[in-house]
Design goal:
Layout: E1 12-17, H1 32-47, E2 51-56, H2 64-69, H3 74-98, E3 103-107, E4 116-117, H4 120-128, E5 132-136, H5 146-156, E6 161-166, E7 171-172, E8 184-185, E9 187-189, H6 190-195, H7 203-212, E10 216-220, H8 226-232, E11 239-242
Helix pairs in contact: 1-3, 5-7
């Protein structure tokens, strides 16, 4: 939890949430308790002076790749997935505003009745005014994941780090549920993540971060207070992906 005696290592961050993160213990849909906890943590971060942008997936509602494997046209399936991210973004916006956090949703697909179109300069201005900006509808193009959208938007708004929230406490050498000898990486290079296919983010997203030297912190979202811990960037916490396997400090 953020407090007056602690400081953020970063001024502007992009938080990448999976749609599955909103399900809680359910198999699909949106868990209101999870939304409330997330919005409370984001409120504390904003109150500490950190500018927060969010990219959220749609896997709790619809996953494009899954649809394409069942005979659906891939592009159509991906567009449906983009619309699912808009639903999640609106739900998160509602939860944040109930916490008193000024929020804007910007979408890569125009739908002016419910959200702003994505305009980079406008997004940056919202952040400068202390508003949380939620980027929805991915990049607006099929065949690109929300991981790639997160990397792209982070660079466009000059975010200092991507916070990749997952259900595990970092990146492992193997699936820890299958291989008990799997070890968690404290730090990791972009090239190592790509070469070993470690599922940090998809390869396009990691390559974008590598080309622009944008660090990624992979951490466990399910534990309360971990978003703030990631922003502090201190201690034996999560996995830091960067240009070199350097320490957190």
């Amino acid at each position: 939890m953020a407090d007056s005696n602690s400081k953020s290592r970063y001024r502007r961050v992009l938080l990448k949430l999976s749609g599955e993160a909103l399900m809680g213990d359910g198999k699909y849909g949106i868990n209101s308790a999870v939304l409330t906890r997330l919005s409370t943590e984001v409120r504390e971060i904003v109150a500490a002076g950190v500018q927060v942008a969010i990219v959220i997936g749609g896997g709790n509602i619809f996953r494009g790749v899954a649809g394409s494997t069942e005979g659906m046209d891939r592009a159509s399936a991906d567009y449906m997935g983009m619309l699912a991210t808009v639903i999640n973004a609106l739900a998160l916006q509602d939860a944040l505003e109930k916490q008193g956090v000024y929020t804007r949703v910007q979408t890569a697909i125009k739908m002016e009745q419910i959200a702003e179109p994505y305009i980079r300069r406008r997004a940056v201005r919202h952040l400068e005014k202390g508003r949380v900006v939620i980027f929805a509808a991915g990049t607006g193009n099929p065949y690109f994941t929300t991981d790639t959208a997160a990397s792209l938007r982070a660079m466009e708004i000059n975010a200092e780090v991507i916070l990749k929230a997952t259900k595990v406490d970092g990146v492992y050498s193997a699936d820890p549920k299958i291989d008990p000898s799997a070890r968690r990486y404290k730090t990791l290079t972009y090239m190592h993540a790509l070469q070993e296919n470690l599922n940090v983010m998809d390869s396009t997203a990691i390559s974008l971060c590598k080309d622009n030297n944008l660090p990624i912190i992979v951490f466990d979202l399910t534990a309360k207070g971990n978003i703030w811990r990631a922003i502090q960037g201190a201690g034996d916490f999560g996995t830091l992906v960067g240009a070199a396997e350097t320490a957190w400090a």
